[in-house]
Design goal:
The complex is a heterodimer of chains A (about 400) and B (about 140).
Chain A: H1 4-12, E1 18-20, H2 23-31, H3 33-39, E2 42-50, E3 55-59, E4 71-74, E5 77-84, E6 87-91, H4 113-121, E7 126-131, E8 142-147, E9 154-162, E10 169-171, E11 178-180, E12 183-185, E13 191-194, H5 202-205, E14 217-220, E15 223-230, E16 253-258, E17 267-272, E18 276-288, H6 292-298, E19 306-311, H7 315-318, E20 325-328, H8 329-334, E21 336-339, E22 342-348, H9 352-367
Parallel strand pairs in A: 1-2, 10-19, 13-22
Antiparallel strand pairs in A: 2-18, 3-6, 3-9, 4-5, 4-7, 5-6, 7-8, 9-16, 10-13, 11-12, 14-15, 14-18, 15-16, 17-18, 19-20, 21-22
Helix pairs in contact in A: 2-3
Chain B: E1 7-16, H1 25-33, E2 36-44, E3 50-59, H2 60-72, E4 76-78, E5 84-86, E6 106-107, E7 117-118, H3 128-132, E8 138-140
Antiparallel strand pairs in B: 1-3, 1-4, 2-3, 5-8, 6-7
Classes of the chains: A alpha+beta (about 400), B alpha+beta (about 140).
């Protein structure tokens, strides 16, 4: 048994033994769980894939004369101004003004909120255009200026939903091509799309949220952020397989961090043809090896993590709960799955190579004493289901 | 093309700075230089610049002479850069393009590392990847 304080002492003195969630698999195979649990202090996990539920709060400081902004656009992408005079919220999936969307199907969705966030973090100039009705104390009615992230007082990223514990695999059983947020799907089940870092993914390595909870410090695109809440749609009551690892969506995390400290490589606007805009954010989460049981959870491997295949041409939009089959991440990552005897090509949207890189960076930051671990201030719910929308007949 | 030992295939991108389109260049390459032509993609519009990406197959000597003929028409020839470019820095290595690339020009050779590789020699410029890349990492020069 180790405590987080003891692990942090080892980190501070530069003596912590840290492995990535990929490396730990072979290490435990070689050394045995008992010996390895004594040696290993931290296992780093990571994910880098599109997660729609993202945005940022920005404070611009005051113009002269002052203005109480009521409508605003950043590079022509509408930002929500109903917060305070010069506070705006920019959502990642917001389209640029006058984007034809799917009028010319499938739409390209080349630029939106996620891309503005990417530009800000890359230090690029962004245009702010704002309108107001004017008040006695805030008389200005119109404003156009150019800013970079350095000109802002605060730029705080929020991901109300991130790090989906697992996710389904999208396939198209119809006879026409479809465009989804899991990619372009050819007709007649020719290919499928998935999005998870599998054995590297944070919540698959801590399936019952024993060490990851509200308050946990996380590596968020290079900044030290934290979990501020359970994520939206957090629904841990679900189908679970080997070692309690979910085989469907399950848990999620709400994350926040300082955009001024983020690296542009890990915050990327996403254009999904025929679907819309999203954002890919790189996340790394350390798991303290408190005991053998915790270490064992981190040895979960792709072949033991299952995902459900769902028809996105009919069953998914109609929400009828139908599942076509189950496949492992080992299969998905091989590039082909076998779905009830049919060979189907598989392509991911989550970057496993990116997740590997992040797990490696976090490992080095912990080893060098830069990144310390935290105990959660509150646990995440372990039993909870997701409600469907209440509709009036 | 009797001497197979000297037969070679070269992939070329031709750039027409101004209108050379009235000359039937493919005809001349076939007829005068005994070359087999496989056109991947072309955009040639009268009075504007144009591009043509093609394979030429034939005797090394004939390929060289054919290239000289094209140059004499003021056509610029690029043997390294082709019509499709892959920006390694924009690519996040998600691999969503791989099932859509018919020739494995975009591929993940090592499924443990899951890193993307682009082999432009294999690319037939079908442009399928451009439609599916969420990060704008692949682009067409024309």
């Amino acid at each position: 048994m180790k405590t987080i304080d003891q692990i942090n002492e080892k980190i501070s003195s530069g003596k912590a033994v840290v492995l990535t969630a990929e490396e730990v698999i072979g290490y435990v195979d070689k050394k045995g769980i008992e010996k390895a649990a004594k040696e290993v202090d931290v296992v780093t996990t990571a994910t880098f894939g599109p997660m729609c539920s993202s945005g940022c709060f920005l404070n611009f400081g005051h113009s002269k004369p002052k203005m109480r902004i009521t409508e605003a656009w950043l590079d022509d992408v509408s930002a929500y101004a109903g917060i305070a005079a010069v506070d705006l919220f920019l959502g990642a999936t917001q389209l640029r003004a006058n984007d034809p969307a799917n009028l010319d199907y499938p739409g390209d969705f080349r630029f939106g909120g996620g891309h503005v966030m990417e530009k800000l973090i890359a230090g690029e100039e962004v245009q702010l255009f704002a309108l107001s009705y004017g008040t006695d104390d805030y008389p200005r009615k119109e404003l156009r200026t150019k800013i970079t992230i350095d000109d802002l007082n605060q730029a705080t990223m929020v991901n109300p939903r991130n790090c989906y514990q697992n996710y389904n695999v999208a396939i198209n059983a119809s006879n026409r091509p479809i465009h989804t947020y899991l990619g372009y799907l050819k007709p007649n089940m020719k290919n499928c799309g998935y999005s998870s870092a599998g054995q590297l993914s944070p919540l698959l390595n801590d399936p019952f949220y024993r060490t990851i909870g509200v308050g946990t410090r996380v590596w968020l695109a290079g900044a030290q952020g934290h979990v501020y809440s359970e994520g939206t749609q957090h629904s841990p009551t679900c189908d679970r397989g080997v070692m309690g690892v979910p085989s469907e969506g399950a848990g999620t995390l709400a994350l926040t961090g300082d955009m001024k400290k983020m690296k542009p490589e890990f915050v990327r606007g996403v254009s999904l043809k025929g679907y819309g805009i999203s954002l890919s954010v790189g996340v790394g989460i350390p798991i303290p090896v408190l005991d053998e049981e915790m270490l064992l959870q981190t040895t979960i491997r792709d072949r033991d993590i299952m995902a459900q295949v769902i028809d996105y041409s009919k069953d998914y939009p109609e929400r009828n709960g139908k599942i076509l089959g189950s496949v492992s991440y080992e299969e998905l990552k091989s590039g082909f799955i076998n779905l009830n005897g049919k060979k189907v090509e598989a392509g991911g949207l989550s970057s496993y190579a990116g997740a590997r890189k992040i797990a490696g960076i976090l490992k080095e930051e912990i080893r060098s004493g830069e990144f310390l671990l935290t105990s959660p201030i509150a646990p995440l719910p372990v039993e909870q289901s997701m409600k469907a929308m209440k509709e009036i007949d | 093309m009797s001497d197979n030992q000297n037969v070679n295939t070269k992939k070329l991108m031709l750039y027409f700075p101004e209108c050379e389109t009235e000359k039937p260049i493919v005809y001349h390459l076939v007829k005068d230089y005994d070359l087999m032509i496989n056109i991947y993609r072309a955009r040639v519009t009268p009075d504007e610049e144009g591009y043509l990406v093609l394979d030429v197959t034939g005797q090394n000597e004939n390929i060289s002479e054919g290239i000289e003929f094209l140059k004499s028409l003021n056509i610029q020839i690029n043997e390294t850069v082709k019509g499709l470019t892959w920006d390694e820095n924009k690519c996040v290595q998600c691999g969503s393009c791989v099932p859509h690339c018919p020739t494995e020009a975009l591929s993940i050779p090592d499924r443990n590392l899951m890193e993307m590789v682009f082999n432009s020699n294999e690319c037939i410029e079908c442009l399928s990847c451009i439609k599916v890349c969420p990060f704008g990492a692949v682009a067409s020069i024309f």
